[in-house]
Amino acid sequence: MDYLSRQSAPISEPLWKQIDEAVVGVARNVLTGRRVLPMMGPLGAGVDSIHIDNAKAHKEEIEEGFITTAGRALVEIPTLYEDFTLLARDMAASEKNGYPLDLSAVLMAAQALALREDRLIFLGQEKLGYEGLLTAKGTGSVEKADWSTGENAFANVAAAIEQMVSGGVFGNYTLVVSPNLYMQMQRLQPGTGLMEIDRVTKLVGGNLFKSPVLGRDQAVLLCAQPQNMDLVVGQDMAAAYLEQRNLNHEFRLLETVLLRLKNPQAVVVFR
Question: Based on the domain organization, do 98 and 113 belong to the same domain?
Fold first, then answer.
């Protein structure tokens, strides 16, 4: 089955290749969640659900000849999408004159979809019942001080790491922050000759990232090991052909992804 409806579409293979390369290029530049989370997949478009295990409560239960798994939930993997249009006249002019087709519509759709994926990972989707790293229940928290002064950022991150260690969460730590917090750390610490951001980056082993989906004044520390969390990918980000309408060509950029948070204690949110 041609899930993406490409074989029957009046689109040449070279153009599909250009679209795919444009999507991958934008995704690499925009996506943050995939840079910090271990990935499971792609599993294929036909995988529509997967289990999420609570690492602390996961075990078999036996009762009167029945065996069930405690601490396990079966969750649907949602489809995320963004539509775009390529004008028939532009495609004809490109083919006739031999110059590359302007793929700005593809690039904009890829950016919007990448940001939607990161919002799902970090903020969840409350109406549909999906939790994000900053909104999940049972995570740790540290009261955030003013990161624009003193060594508050360093002290807050150190406290978050100490909280994880005290809770038995060990491994590589990753810090993801709002763009404004990232900029607030771009300053010299008096008497040290060191940038605050360099001290914080060293504290998390170089794993410091910023993401626009966090808005302002938000930050989260993760121990993003596979036993704690991962990102399940069914259908990876790809363009599908929808229809020809008013002579123009309609496409859908889509993916199926789901955050699996197995150990909420591996997340500390700065509130």
Answer: yes
